[in-house]
Amino acid sequence: MRDKEKIRHAFGLAPEPLTTFAGFAADGLHDANFGFVTENGPVAARQLLRYLTDLPAAAGCPSTEHFVLGHAGVADHVDKLPLKTWEELLARAFDTAKIEDLQGMANGTREFVDRFIPLIEDVGKFASPCLLAWGVLPDKT
Predict the structure, then answer these.
(1) Is residue 44 included in any domain, yes or no?
(2) Does residue 126 contact residue 86 with C-beta atoms inside 8 Å?
(3) Domain annotation covers residue 15
(4) Which of 4, 88, 112, 140 gives 20 to 30 Å between its CA and that of 122?
């Protein structure tokens, strides 16, 4: 699955306007979309945080460890890098969710886009294989 497809897959269950932002991450953002970003960016950032925290349960996993590693209990010999990556994604999402108003940022909408779109891309590339492993398959429509 290519990165664009991973992004679409990972956000297939996401609410609007987060789904639209995932489309921007997969297909590109144009100047005409900046008004939408300014109006909906903070809401989508908060949706992303909630979406990430709920994603393991949505995949039918009892814990984040199950979702990310495939099993519970993190033994010393298990590679913990995927769990660390997930926690870093959550930390980035939390920092972005704290943005109340894009106009209050030094470079406004552009600064938000430069932070949020790469985050969506990274989440998509990471979460899609986990979702696939747990049987949450891409929509083929």
Answers:
(1) yes
(2) yes
(3) yes
(4) 140
